[in-house]
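Notes from the pairing session

We agreed to fold both candidates in a single pass and log them together. This is the raw record for the first candidate, unedited. Please don't reformat it; downstream parsing expects exactly this layout.

Candidate A
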Amino acid sequence: MCQTCSHTRVIVLCVSDLMTQRRLYLFWPLPLNKLMRLPLCSFCISRSLLSQRQATNVQRRSLSGAAMRLVQFHRRGDGGGIRVGVEQGEGLGVVDLKAFDPSMPSTMRELLELGDKGLECAQRALASGQCVLERSGIRLLSPVLAPEKVVCVGMNYLDHCLEQNAPVPKEPIIFSKFPSAITGPYDDITLPSESQEVDWEVEMAFVIGRRGKHIKEEDALSYVAGFTVANDVSARDWQMKRNGKQWLLGKTFDSFCPLGPALVTTDSVKDPHSLAVRCLVNGDTVQSSNTDQMIFKTEQLVAWVSKFVTLTPGDVFLTGTPPGVGVFRTPPVFLKSGDVVECQIDQLGSIINKVV
């Protein structure tokens, strides 16, 4: 469309924004003599640049692009129903998402399955300042319950390999836990009578936010909903000596995957591969490292595992542990009833679990 004046014509180019479905109007005032000589490809180039910019924005987005700390919880005294909430800040009040919008689901997995719609609602709820519950009135659960998959990575810290005098893996070492191993950030770790060698492993975990298969590394973070803290509790006798040295049984006893306290969305974490990681047993630091020691980063793990299986919202990845585990101490040290294990990761929070 052109608007004419005595010396200048204005080109108005209407372009549809693919992400917002809004129309963008671009104005170019051009002298009349230049307008007649302007090649059609100029408009094509401008439109192409807009498309490239939109594609880049989509690639960099992590779901809704919102910085939040999402939690699952029970309200004390309400019969134990699961709710999803948004922390006003680490350790602060929690906005009850379903109280804010009754159409929203009651579990984190269902919220993630809604995609941007669910996370944008959570962002509005947080901004509203309404439906806030005091911490004393709730009990935090694991951020994700009953995921389809719990994917674990072995030998993924360079300093942990050095601790064992083990070669650095050339590709990710993948194993799993059953989802029934997941327990809350402050729930007890139960020592099984079948094992005498239960050990600790602080780990950064991440949660998948949308479905994908054969995901490229450069797109991988857009499939990650956020990060949390995990303890990959391990029965070393079953992992290293029994059951043909297959790791699964030693890793998957009930309560062997404390997780939490919150799902910290990807946009809340400046660099997930530059976070201090610590584990304390009875107040003594037993593990202290940094996620910069990870051999295979988040993007590589998403791309690698998605070659084999379809990733779905709620899938949990445990990304490996640094040195300092009990089994490689001299003499070895294992957890006993009454011990308290605290796993800490900067920007994500801490989980504290008593051993019973």
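Candidate B (folded immediately after A)
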Amino acid sequence: MPVAAPSMSWLAFAGRSSSSAMTRLMLGRTLERICKGVLLLCLLHFLIMMILYFDVYTQRFDLFSRFNNGRNGSRNNASGAAAAGSGHHFYYYNLSRPNTTLASYIATGSTQLETNQTPSPKPLPPCPEIPPGLVGRLLIEFSSLMTMERVQRENPNVTEGGRYTPPDCRPRWKVAIIIPFRHRENHLKYWLHYLHPILRRQKIDYGIYIINQLGEETFNRAKLLNVGYTEALKDGEYDCFIFSDVDLIPMDDRNLYHCYDQPRHFAIAMDKFGFRLPYAGYFGGVSGLSKKQFLKINGFPNEYWGWGGEDDDIYNRITLNGMKVSRPDVRIGRYRMIKHERDKHNEPNPQRFNKIQNTKNTMKRDGISTLTYRLVMVKRYPLYTNISVEIGKPPPRPFRG
């Protein structure tokens, strides 16, 4: 019996089945390749992460360096002297860090070692406005014997030239203390004996300058103060200036020797005036001005030869330039004066009253801008800096017939 030939519909079905199988086979191979690729990428990612992990780990803890130092510790101790004598030093360099070469480590090795051994100090805090070590009212007496050796032993932290800076804080002002001087060696011992401890307790960054007028011509206090201002600025970057007579000692260390928003009069209650301000415009004894304030009034007058008048002229300069004098409380601004006879060649100036009345006309042409003097010697002692100068002599007085 003859076999019947397959129908056309069955052949079509068989063709479609074969095509579908081929499509599934190709899709399966493609998915297999994709899976393998993803697996390889995951493996590569894992390896990269492990490498980075160990690299960061070694950078942070430097395990290899510690291991190397421990392993070679005894060897380095044995050969340390020889290495130091030959100038060779042994370092471990972690060359596994990215972008690192031996040459770069050699170039920066000494700097890194120095940085590791000497960390930068922390900045000092500002000094408190009211230092905590102040004691208040002081007992001031001048009967005990005073020597420079004793004062030096009492102030071991004061450096050459009478300089001191607080070691534990940063002062706002850098203060030059200016003292006009001639033939007052005994007074200076007491002044240094009392003032150095007071200034250190006040946390003042300061230097002390004794401006010594040479010769026996008439004394000129204000001109010496101008000289002190000029010479102190050659020695340091001062921004505050305290002008003090050598025979005045503060009786309270709360009378802070620094500058203020307005010119400062410190010695407002002296024992010789019954601890009272003698008159409203008094600016004598001890005063202070910032550098800006001092220049604003053209410094102090140069033409007051002899005793008196210059402090009133300074007061006039301050008020005429729109400033006011500030003062401490009368209970704090008390001073004791070392008793003495009036200095020779420092007699009262008979022209002082006429000069005081003309401050407005003279202050622009008589002051720090017209100062002339001859510097003879600068010598730094343990407790102060001595500046000896020649400042000339007064002009001849007009003849009165």
